[in-house]
Design brief:
By secondary structure, this protein is an alpha/beta fold. Among the domains are: about 70 residues, no CATH class; about 60 residues. The strands form three sheets. Strands 4-5-6-7-8 form a five-stranded mixed β-sheet, with no helix packed on it. Strands 1-2-3 form a three-stranded parallel β-sheet, with no helix packed on it. β4 and β5 form a beta hairpin. The longest helix is centred in the middle third of the chain and has 25 residues. The chain is elongated and about 65 Å long. The N and C termini lie far apart (about 55 Å). It binds zinc ion. The site of zinc ion (ZN) has 6 residues, from loops. This is Metallo-beta-lactamase domain-containing protein. Pfam families: Lactamase_B, WHD_BLACT.
Length: about 250
């Protein structure tokens, strides 16, 4: 409700009204406030987002989403926004480019001051490259501080993931023909990481393994579905056998 008050004050101060709400992706912390806005402000604006494919979007209470497509362009007085499908953090994740300034609103793909969670690392790496190729002047993340050195920051994200991938490949090579689970790899390459953070480290490793499999660098990875259960934190016996293709 604090946000609604501030939004009302800002609209009054600049004598503007809501034209459209653009939702970057389906996560609750990004859509959760939309119903409140819709019940507090008069109608006449759209709520736009890219449609989820694997599951239906959770319906809004007071209005329906207007589903838009990749590269959709929004016009308003003095500003143009272009939407890019930028999956990886989530399948429906999008970023917005303020064309006039080549500024990027990065949603959760890039965060200011912390690392994000990744649903699909292969898409995520392509999405980082997409942002780098847009060569933004500044990045406004969904959370955290403004990033005024996009090239170094996004480049750093890519480098960090590539380094992790090399470590995993090295680990698999060193333990060739030994059945390994994601947690075995965590124990070897995430030295000194506290136990509480090891599950999320294992999730990272799983993402890397899935990517390596897509890249045909990992020979045998079974069973994928069971590996994914790490995400829920469930106690599941995982019999992941990895053989590095050499
Ligand atoms: Zn998110």
């Amino acid at each position: 409700m604090e946000y609604i008050k501030e939004l009302k004050a800002a609209l009054e101060k600049f004598a503007v009204s809501l034209q459209e709400i653009i939702v970057t992706h389906w996560h609750p912390d990004h859509v959760g406030g939309v119903d409140d806005i819709c019940s507090s402000f008069n109608e006449g604006y759209k709520v736009s987002k890219l449609k989820r494919l694997s599951e239906a979007d959770v319906p809004l209470k007071n209005t329906d989403y207007t589903f838009i497509k990749d590269q959709h362009v929004f016009h308003t007085e003095g500003a143009t926004l272009r939407l890019y499908h930028n999956p990886g953090h989530s399948e429906d994740h999008t970023i917005l480019q303020l064309v006039e300034e080549n500024a990027i609103f990065s949603g959760d793909t890039i965060l200011g001051g912390s690392t994000t969670t990744v649903e699909d690392l292969t898409s995520y790496m392509q999405s980082l490259k997409q942002i780098l190729d847009l060569n933004p002047s500044v990045i406004y993340p969904g959370h955290g501080f403004v990033i005024d050195n996009p090239k170094e920051t996004v480049g750093g994200y890519i480098e960090h993931r590539n380094k992790r991938e090399s470590q995993i490949i090295q680990c698999l090579t060193d333990h060739r023909d030994t059945p390994m689970e994601p947690m075995d790899i965590v124990k070897i390459i995430y030295v000194g990481v506290p136990e509480a953070l090891q599950i999320s480290a294992a999730n990272n490793v799983i993402q890397h393994l899935l990517k390596l499999q897509k890249d045909q660098k990992v020979d045998h990875l079974t069973p994928l579905k069971a590996a994914a259960l790490y995400f829920t934190g469930c106690e599941v016996v995982i019999s992941t056998v990895l053989l590095y293709r050499h």
